[in-house]
Structures are given as C-alpha cells and as structure tokens.
C-alpha cells in the first residue's frame, strides 16, 4: 500500500477519492496568501511609524539635554552667564548627535520679590532683598524625517528652553 496521506486511507485500507476536501484545502491556502498580502503593508506602515516616533523622541531628548548643558555651563558663575560662545559650545558638545543646532542665550536679572528683567546687573535691591541672575538658553534643532509624508513638513523644528539661577 503506497499511501502518502493517512487521512486518505479508509479503515478497510482502501483509498478514498480526494475530491471536494482537497480543493477546499488549496483554496484555504490561497485565501491565507491574499490575507497576508493585505496585512503586510499595514504592518510595515506601523513599523515605519514606530521607528519615526522613536527617532523623534530621541532627537527631542537630545535637544533638551543640549539646552540643559548650556544652561548648566552658564549657571556656574556670573562670568560664564555672560559668555554666549561658551554656552553655545557646551550645548553643541552635549548635542553632538543633532546636526545644525541653533543656540541662543540671554540673562535675566532682578531682586528677590520682584519680577525679572533683561537689564543686568540688578541694582537698587533694598534689604532684605538681594540680586538674582538667571541664564536662559534656547536650543532649536531641525528633525529630518525618513520619508516625506503627505500633510507633514520634511523637517520639524524641535525647541527646548532651559532657565537656571546663576551661582553668585
């Protein structure tokens, strides 16, 4: 007896005709291929979307860390707070993975209990108030996406602003 498939053997040992059931199995295999052809592009689209979101999150963290590094450099002393080139260099060193970061820094001064202004150094602080100096660092980076998506720009600007009190 030369039987390839056990389900085609009857109890008495005779082969039954494949007929309708064999054709049904072939059609089910074809249906599976068609379903797979519909699902694979959707899964690839989801995968590309997840990768893009991950890249954007990484880039926004990078820009935020660069702004924080610049603010930390400027907050070390009054001399560093007015050193715009040093602040920009510290931010660019920390954000080395982000190309084309734009760094700008400003100082804000004032007295405790009052609002801060852009005029530094703060003078005329009446006791018990004392002078405060803050450094504010703004970093702008341009995130390039992998593909051009309809309705979205090719580059998305990511901005981070950090403000720290200067040690005096």
Write the layout of secondary structure elements.
Layout: H1 19-74, H2 78-81, H3 84-94, E1 102-111, E2 131-144, E3 155-165
What does this structure look like?
There is one protein chain. The protein is built from three helices and three strands, in the order H-H-H-E-E-E. With 168 residues, it is of the alpha+beta class. It has one domain (17-165). The protein has a three-stranded antiparallel β-sheet with strand order 1-2-3. The chain starts with 18 loop residues before the first helix and ends with a strand.
Number of strands: 3
Tally of helical runs: 3
> Major beta sheet, specifics?
3 strands, antiparallel
Helix residue percentage = 40-55%
Total domains: 1
Which residues form runs of ≥5 with pLDDT under 50? none
Q: How much of the polypeptide forms β-strand, as a percent range?
A: 15-25%
Mean pLDDT: 83
Give me the strand/helix succession: HHHEEE
Please give the oligomerization state of what you see. single chain
Q: Radius of gyration in whole Å, from Cα?
A: 33 Å
Structural class: alpha+beta
Biggest sheet: strands side by side, in what order?
A: 1-2-3
Based on Cα principal axes, name the global outline.
rod-shaped
**Gap from first CA to last CA:** 98 Å
Brief summary:
The chain is built from three helices and three strands, in the order αααβββ. With about 170 residues, it is α+β, with helices and mostly antiparallel strands. The protein has a three-stranded antiparallel beta sheet with strand order 1-2-3.
Can you give keywords for this protein?
single chain, 168 residues, alpha+beta, 3-stranded antiparallel beta sheet, 3 helices, 42% helix, rod-shaped
């Amino acid at each position: 007896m030369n039987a390839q498939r056990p389900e085609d053997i009857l109890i008495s040992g005779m082969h039954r005709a494949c007929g309708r059931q064999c054709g049904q199995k072939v059609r089910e295999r074809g249906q599976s291929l068609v379903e797979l052809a519909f699902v694979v592009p959707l899964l690839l689209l989801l995968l590309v979307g997840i990768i893009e979101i991950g890249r954007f999150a990484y880039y926004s963290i990078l820009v935020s860390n660069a702004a924080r590094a610049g603010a930390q450099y400027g907050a070390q002393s009054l001399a560093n707070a007015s050193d715009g080139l040093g602040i920009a260099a510290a931010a660019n060193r920390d954000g080395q993975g982000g190309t084309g970061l734009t760094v700008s820094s400003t100082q804000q001064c004032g007295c405790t209990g009052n609002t801060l202004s852009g005029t530094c150094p703060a003078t005329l602080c009446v006791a018990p108030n004392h002078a405060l100096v803050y450094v504010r660092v703004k970093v702008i980076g341009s995130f390039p996406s992998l593909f051009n998506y309809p309705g979205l720009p090719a580059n998305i600007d990511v901005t981070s602003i950090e403000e720290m009190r200067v040690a005096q």
